[in-house]
Amino acid sequence: MRGTGRHIDMYQYIYIPTDQIIHVDAMGLSNGKIVQVKDGNFDSEVLRSTIPVLVDFYADWCGPCKIIAPTLDALSAEYAGKIKFVKVNVDSNQEVSSKYDIMSIPTAMLFEKGEVKDSLIGAYPAAAYRQHLDRALTP
Questions:
Q1: What's the Cα-to-Cα distance from 68 to each of 8, 114, 115, 119, 135, rounded to whole Å?
Q2: Tens digit of each residue's pLDDT (9 = 90 or more) over 16-57
Q3: Catalytic status, residue 20
Q4: Which superfamily does 24-131 belong to?
Q5: Which position among 5, 25, 34, 71 has the lowest Cβ density within 10 Å, counted as fewest Cβ atoms?
Q6: Predicted TM-score of the model (pTM)
Q7: Which of 62, 75, 83, 133 is catalytic?
Q8: Model confidence over 85-105: pLDDT tens digits?
Q9: Where are the domains of the chain?
Q10: Does the active-site annotation cover 62?
């Protein structure tokens, strides 16, 4: 972005096609894929999860959300079985979005044992998400 003193290095992001089918096992783990969550199943998929959950609050029209989607998909494969990754569309799931005061997207919130433990607002490179995820896995 000219004039702001900041720029985004697009090469920091990972490209992976996202048109693959998501398979969820009996524990709700997606084996490295991101699960779509709605208002009706947020409690069971996120708040009652036995492992930490990264929730990606996004919208289909959001450019930065589209930019980070492949990065989060790659991280979901990297952290498969350790951290569950889910997406919540803020336009069609306003109850959950309102409950967690989502004012800007993308917003990534890390939940542990039903509580928000960490969050990132905006688009970041994989290393920034990895730092927060690793912190959640450290006892």
A1: 12, 25, 24, 15, 20
A2: 444 443 433 333 334 468 999 999 999 999 999 999 999 999
A3: no
A4: Glutaredoxin (3.40.30.10)
A5: 5
A6: 0.77
A7: 62
A8: 999 999 999 999 999 999 999
A9: 24-131
A10: yes
